[in-house]
Amino acid sequence: IALTDELGCDFALPVYPKAPEHKATEVLASVNAVYDRMVERYGAENIVVAGDSAGGGMTVSLLTDVRDSGRPQPRAGLLISPWLDLTMADPASAALADRDLMLTIIGARRAGGWYAGDMSPSDPRISPVTADPSGLAPLHIWVGTHEIFLPDCRTFAGKARANGHRVTIHEMPKGQHVAALFPTPEGACARAQMIALVDWP
Fold first, then answer.
1. Is residue 39 a contact partner of residue 47, using CB atoms and an 8 Å limit?
2. Which residue among 48, 76, 87, 179 has the highest number of C-beta atoms inside a 10 angstrom radius?
3. What's the rounded Cα separation, in Å, for the pair 131 and 134?
4. At what angle do helices 54-68 and 24-42 cross, to 10 degrees?
5. Which of 25, 3, 27 is nearest to 15 (CA)?
6. pLDDT (tens digit, 0 to 9) for every residue of the chain, 201 residues total?
7. SS (H, E, C) 82-128
8. HSE on the CB side for 142, CA within 13 Å?
9. Which residues, other chains included, contact 31 with Cβ-Cβ below 8 Å and sequence gap of 6+?
């Protein structure tokens, strides 16, 4: 809300169905419907889609659905400690487990299985670290160097850049999960970066 106050823009928080009662197909259908309503009201060029943790991964999945269906991309996507691989397969993530004070590999895999339902947890529609990043809106990532999601953020950003996609990654030294939202000087700096990158006319 503080970000929207500084930017002078409206803010919509979709109340989407949650796992384990609801699965990925239902969740993505819900956020796609919200996105379409927002586009109809404001125009895609005036929309920034943002999400943290599971919502960050969902943001990439949403923009992939939007691209594949031929709908217009938003102005940008802001990804805060995004969860990009439900399988947590990268060994580099396990190497960070002792530094991450908020998340565990086992817990993430279990939650990922609940969310995936009948889909494979490695399906690029829900684990976008394996998705094709071409044609998506510009993406901006904030992630802490002490969280288990860091390796997948680096992998995704590197693959996107290699394909000529505009993506920035802001690594917060010693940052924990969603450190960009903490009421700290480092969090305030991250939020100032978000405001500058959105750059409303």
1. yes
2. 179
3. 9
4. 70
5. 27
6. 667 777 778 888 888 888 889 999 999 999 999 999 999 999 999 999 999 999 999 999 999 999 999 999 999 999 999 999 999 999 999 999 999 999 999 999 999 999 999 999 999 999 999 899 999 999 999 999 999 999 999 999 999 988 888 899 999 999 999 999 999 999 999 999 998 888 655
7. CCCCCCCCCHHHHHCCCCCCCCCHHHHHHHHHHHHCCCCCCCCCCCH
8. 25
9. 14, 16, 58, 62
